[in-house]
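Figure 3 (text version): structure tokens given as input.
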């Protein structure tokens, strides 16, 4: 399809977003807020909602965490319009893309990624994971077609040949963004040493396959967007996704929620007898809605106004968490 045809087909198609939990542990209050707002934007605006499990990050993926995430979201009152898609079921598509990118000389094999730090770059780089700017040590002197398949089992990782340019895009919450990927992370990983696609690559193919038009997610992934934009262009995918990065809920140390911040998991709250309406009430208060009185997801969707969403991160203190448990 010529790009103008693709663009007009896209503009005629129904808008769509996705819920895409990573099954790396139980969903916490911060995840719940992101998913509730994503679902609400979709239900308010008539977008289709796809559901995807982001389970490529194998050392961190926990068995059963996919089912637990689905149960938590259903318990909160969320629903979706598609079958559940697993990234681990799409490896052949990712490999086909890697073969194409390598044949076009847009990615290259890298042998200097034995350290744990480099391994972290391969996964979804949520905040708190430290990214290194890769110095391009294995970058060939000139672009050249490379046979991905013949090198796949030789234990090399693969990096994207990052162009030296500034990527510009609009975020619906954070406004115009200008990012030099070359300066921030350099030639980033697109596949690990097992030849498995990185999150940065897979997410583009998944979103395209599911017809996603609106990406709504936590602001810790804002810095990934420029990388994904470059990859979309390299893959020949339309680049005009609409992005909504929601300010995260963080602990008092400013980091995204984790065990050390207390029992913030939805399953822990549920097991302690906290009703879903109370959790949604607390989330409503964090979204700039009145006093945070208990309400269902459907009522939240009636009341929510993206214009009222505070542009700052929510800091969840111990007292705020206690109040959710106590119901006061
Ligand atoms: N699975 C990612 C997360 O839970 C979201 C990925 C994305 O929205 O692109 O943070």
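Below: residues designed for each position.
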């Amino acid at each position: 399809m010529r790009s103008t045809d693709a663009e007009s087909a896209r503009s005629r198609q129904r808008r769509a977003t996705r819920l895409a939990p990573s099954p790396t542990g139980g969903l916490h209050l911060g995840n719940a807020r992101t998913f509730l707002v994503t679902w609400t934007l979709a239900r308010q605006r008539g977008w289709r909602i796809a559901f995807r499990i982001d389970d490529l990050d194998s050392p961190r993926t926990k068995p059963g965490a996919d089912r637990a995430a689905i149960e938590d979201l259903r318990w909160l009152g969320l629903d979706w319009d598609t079958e559940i898609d697993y990234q681990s079921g799409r490896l052949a598509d990712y490999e086909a893309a890697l073969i194409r990118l390598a044949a076009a000389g847009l990615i290259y094999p890298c042998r200097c990624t034995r350290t744990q730090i480099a391994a972290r770059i391969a996964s979804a780089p949520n905040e708190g994971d430290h990214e290194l700017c890769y110095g391009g040590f294995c970058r060939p002197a000139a672009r050249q077609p490379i046979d991905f398949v013949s090198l796949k089992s030789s234990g090399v990782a693969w990096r994207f040949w990052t162009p030296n340019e500034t990527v510009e895009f609009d975020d619906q919450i954070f406004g115009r963004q200008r990012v030099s990927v070359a300066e921030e992370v350099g030639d980033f990983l697109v596949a690990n040493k097992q030849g498995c696609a990185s999150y940065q690559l897979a997410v583009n193919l998944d979103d395209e396959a599911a017809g996603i038009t609106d990406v709504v997610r936590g602001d810790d992934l804002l810095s990934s967007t420029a990388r994904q934009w470059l990859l979309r262009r390299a893959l020949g995918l339309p680049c005009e996704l609409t992005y909504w990065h929601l300010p995260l809920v963080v602990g008092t140390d400013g980091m995204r929620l984790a065990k050390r911040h207390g029992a913030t998991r939805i399953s822990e709250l549920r097991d302690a007898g906290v009703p879903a309406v109370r959790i949604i009430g607390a989330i409503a208060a964090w979204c700039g809605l009145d006093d945070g009185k208990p309400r269902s997801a459907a009522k939240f969707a009636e009341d929510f106004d993206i214009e009222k969403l505070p542009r700052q991160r929510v800091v969840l203190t111990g007292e705020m968490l206690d109040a959710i448990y106590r119901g006061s």
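The chain is about 35% helix and 15% strand.
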